[in-house]
Amino acid sequence: MVRHTLNRWQAGLALSLALAATVAQVSADEAMSAETLSKETLSKEALSKEALAAEEAQAALQARIDAADDATRADIEALRERQAELRQLTAYNRELAPRLDQQASTLDEREAALDAVGDTREALPGMLRDLVERLRQWIEADLPFLKKERLARVDGLETQLANGEVSHTEALDRVLAAWRRELDYGRELDAWRGLVDVASMQAQANGAPADSLQAGADESLSREVDFLRIGRAGLYYLTPDGREGGVWKAAAGEWQPLNGAERAELDKGLRIARDQRAPELLSLPISQTVSDAPRMSAPSTAVNQHSEKDGDA
Q1: CB-based burial of residue 261 (10 Å sphere; 0-12 exposed, 13-18 middle, 19+ buried)?
Q2: What is the pLDDT of residue 16?
Q3: Taking a C-beta distance cutoff of 8 angstroms, is the pair 245, 255 a contact?
Q4: Which of 15, 19, 64, 210 suits 269 as a labelling partner, its CA being 20 to 30 A distant?
Q5: What are phi and psi of 255, to 5 degrees?
Q6: Cα(172)–Cα(157) distance, integer angstroms
Q7: What does the mean pLDDT of the chain come to?
Q8: 209 vs 252: CA distance, rounded Å
């Protein structure tokens, strides 16, 4: 009985131990499963965070790439603009180079002229007097047209040179202006009405020498005529009725008569000068040849250069 009871107790104890072991095993398994689940959960969360971080890094990298592309495009566009500006500047410099060379040459010439200014200033008063005297000689040896007016211009120049208040520069300008006016006479076709000495007309009709034209002669000894001047090559007169005409001969210093055909040509010349007829060639005797014409000269190269510059202005 006692053995039987002991056996049953042992059997119960063994069953309890077996159940306890089973429960312990189950608890252990459950603990392991919970731990595994916890690790798996943590691993998924870590993976999720890593994936999110990778996406953020990829987005940041893409943003940097896009920004770099924009900057690169901007740099390329700026480079193209600089290249275009460089081509324009190169072309402009190529075009400007000859002008700069010319300006440099002009500056050198002006510097050389400035170096000679001192010598020219000292010699200027004497040169001005010489120019005025040569101008008077030129007028007296030239064809006798507007002689009083031209000589009065010379007298005025001499008065200005004697005036201490007139600067050398102003005096030089006026002298050169008078010379230019004389030069202009050689390129003009001019007609006007004036007086010619009757005695000279009668003398030329008789074939005898006569005195030169006297524009201010007394009316009783003068006759009104029409004068024609062709530069410095010819000086003529024609009476209003066209019956008498003459050409001034510089070599002889007198008027010489014109025949009927020459007077007809002279009448055409007068109408051309007065814009009453179209220009055409005239067949008239000349007053003086080029070799016989008075020559003008300047005493100084510096004055010649000044004259040319003033003429260009």
Answers
A1: exposed
A2: 63
A3: no
A4: 210
A5: -85, 140
A6: 10
A7: 78
A8: 8
Q: Which amino acid is at 174?
A: R
pLDDT tens per residue across span 200-218: 655 555 554 444 444 443 4
Neighbours of 302 (CB within 10 A): 18
Beta strands in the chain (DSSP E): 189-197, 222-230, 234-238, 245-249, 254-257
| Residue 307 near residue 176 (C-beta atoms within 8 A) | yes
Torsion of CA 223, 225, 228, 233, to 10 degrees: -30
Among 219, 216, 222, smallest CA distance to 199 is for 222
Of 16-25, 174-183, 221-230, minimum mean pLDDT range: 16-25
Task: Report the half-sphere exposure of 180 (CA within 13 A, side-chain side).
Answer: 16
Structure token pair of residue 61 = 């990298």
Closest by CA position to 293, among listed 186, 146, 176: 186
d(CA 284, CA 229): 12
Contact 205, 239 (CB under 8 A): no
With beta carbons less than 8 A apart as the criterion, state whether 163 and 119 touch. Answer: no
- The helix/strand/coil state of 227 is strand
Q: Which amino acid is at 211?
A: D
- How many CB atoms are located within 10 Å of the residue 26 CB? 10
0.70 surpassed by pTM:
no
**Is 35's pLDDT higher than 60?**
yes
* Least-confidence region, from 34-48, 143-157, 218-232: 34-48
